[in-house]
Amino acid sequence: xxxxxxxxxxxxxxxxxxxxxxxxxxxxxxxxxxxxxxxxxxxxxxxxxxxxxxxxxxxxxxxxxxxxxxxxxxxxxxxxxxxxxxxxxxxxxxxxxxxxxxxxxxxxxxxxxxxxxxxxxxxxxxxxxxxxxxxxxxxxxxxxxxxxxxxxxxxxxxxxxxxxxxxxxxxxxxxxxxxxxxxxxxxxxxxxxxxxxxxxxxxxxxxxxxxxxxxxxxxxxxxxxxxxxxxxxxxxxxxxxxxxxxxxxxxxxxxxxxxxxxxxxxxxxxxxxxxxxxxxxxxxxxxxxxxxxxxxxxxxxxxxxxxxxxxxxxxxxxxxxxxxx
Length: 325
Hints:
This protein has helices spanning 3-39, 47-76, 82-88, 95-115, 120-166, 171-181, 186-198, 203-213, 217-232, 236-285, 292-295, 297-320. The protein is mainly alpha-helical. The protein has a domain at 260-325. The chain is elongated.
């Protein structure tokens, strides 16, 4: 075979091999590029996949915000200062004035018991308990009343913000509308938010001030919704609409629980007040019948023991009829 023919055959073989393998190599390169694009989340994702990815991202951000808020709340639950308790009760009284009034109340109780001839030990004990416990009980009652009134009006305030946002108003203007037109005590709390914004605080930090004064889970929900929207954006009106519906459902559940527990509360009140009513009636019918309990030292001891046991029983019954919902 001549060298020319041999060279032509070799050239044809090399060309055939190139035609056979090069397209597969090119296709393999395209496949690798496509796999890489899918793994890196390139624009080749379908719209459904992108929406699902955004939903997962928002869910993770919401969970992270809730966890951070929960950690902050645990730090704040350690011990609430007296001045903050007064704020949470909606009272404009200063800490010093509250302590002064408590001491005056204790002094009045001491003088009354001393004039009635009660032994000094019991006089001092009841005076000290009256100076500390009675004002604290009154303060706790005011705080509970303040929170109940706030929860009554909070769904209306949230819906007012939703209406403002849907009409195109910024969130700050919607908060100003609530601070101007809502009922108390929501109006005052949102007025503090507006004032904080005017002083330069961000909307997220200003709204968080509400939870410091009204530490309720419903308020925490509102703060988290605003915080997540400020950080990652999203449909604020839809989120607040869902929140308003949840708040109203919780309100209905609370009313149902209170109705179901009213019988237990009435029984506790009757049992707790029965010894005092019986003692008053017996003293009215036979004034000298219970006199040894006051005149005789042993009677004083028995009376003190009975008072302690009654206090423990009333405390236990009170805790039994307090429902956390």
